[in-house]
Amino acid sequence: DEALLRLKEVSKSYSIRRGLFGERKTLTAVKSVDLALARGEVLGLVGESGCGKSTLAKILLGLEAPTSGDVLVGGQALAGQDRTKLARRIQPIFQDPYSSLNPRKTVFDIVSLPLRIHGIGDGPSRQKRVTEILDIVGLSKRVTRAFPNQLSGGQRQRVAIARALVMKPEIVVCDEPTSALDVSVQSQILNLLSELRREFGLTYLFISHDLAVVQHLATRVAVMYLGRIVEEAGVDELFETPRHPYTRALLDSVLTPDASLGVPDTELGAAFPNPIDPPSGCAFHPRCPKRFAPCDHEFPPTVPTKNGGFVECHLYRERAGASQ
Ligand code: SF4
Ligand code: MG
């Protein structure tokens, strides 16, 4: 298995009660997802909020167990892997540096915590490693004694990046790492992530609702809708030849001035559906401008495309038949 990270048929459901005596309902946040990440790749995972992308991130970080399916890191099942070994393989950077950094701890404490948790090095060597990693992410030695509230948003995200990299991981899972930041700071952080990738040969899973951000960084893109990956393609191919109607709608919204606000409902017709009560057939059918006879009752086929990509849509089903 060449993949550094692989998801096989991964699903995650939650049981949810509506009100105190309400009936229990099942919310399936991730539905039978297959995904592979090769070394050095940046896989962009895009979709609207509520599509399951953060749940997927938590599953592959080992923060949540899948309801079914397998997560393999370095060819081995994630469940049961040695925690320190795993921390050296995969680290997260989350969206909000305000809430993900402990306000009562200094930058030194925050960045050195993974080393202390995993018993790596002694006092002086940790000090050295923290200073080194802060320098790498563009923070001066002076911030070591600062608390998060004394730093700007961009500085805080640099601290979060330093904390992720202090363990020298192979894979970094970035969940909307720039969406809480000002636009000018966003591009600095994206450039930094890009430089770090080149310098240290990192592999990223880059989660974002913003296709423009993904285009900047990703080598491959997976588009997620209501818990399913509905299209996957190389980044240039996806932007030049988007196949799934949802991908096309997302791309159209990139071209509107309000792209940062996500997908405007006006472009997609109906609003994002309730994941507790997903539409039948193709889950995208109530919003799809291309829907036709089978879409509201038949689950669409997964149709292979170029270079290991695929699209899950009835529009391409003849090709699905032809390739079998
Ligand atoms: Fe649209 Fe039908 Fe394709 Fe779903 S399967 S995206 S409804 S055309
Ligand atoms: Mg999210």
Helical proportion, percent range: 25-40%
**Uncertain segments:** 255-266
Indicate the overall shape.
globular
| Overall SS class | alpha/beta
| Binned strand content | 15-25%
Q: How many discrete domains?
A: 1
Number of strands: 12
Largest sheet: 8 strands, mixed
Write down the CATH class. Answer: Alpha Beta
CATH fold call: Rossmann fold
Report on this model:
InterPro entries: AAA+_ATPase (IPR003593), ABC_transp_ATP-bind (IPR050319), ABC_transporter-like_ATP-bd (IPR003439), ABC_transporter-like_CS (IPR017871), Oligopep_ABC_C (IPR013563), P-loop_NTPase (IPR027417). Residues 5-251 form the ABC transporter domain. This protein is an alpha/beta fold and 324 residues long. The protein has one domain (5-244): P-loop containing nucleotide triphosphate hydrolases (Rossmann fold). It is built from 12 helices and 12 strands. It has helices at residues 53-60, 83-89, 97-100, 107-117, 123-136, 153-165, 183-200, 211-217, 235-240, 245-254, 265-268, 317-322, and strands at residues 5-17, 24-37, 42-46, 68-73, 76-77, 90-93, 171-175, 203-208, 220-225, 228-234, 302-304, 310-312. The strands form 2 sheets. It has an 8-stranded mixed β-sheet with strand order 6-7-8-3-9-10-12-11, with helices on both faces. The protein has a 4-stranded antiparallel β-sheet with strand order 2-1-4-5. Helix 7 links the parallel strand 7 and strand 8 (203-208). Helix 4 (107-117) packs across helix 5 (123-136), helix 5 (123-136) crosses helix 6 (153-165) and helix 6 runs parallel beside helix 7. The longest helix is centred in the middle third of the chain and has 18 residues, at 183-200. It starts with a strand and ends with a helix. Residues 255-266 have low confidence and may be disordered. The structure holds iron/sulfur cluster (SF4) and magnesium ion.
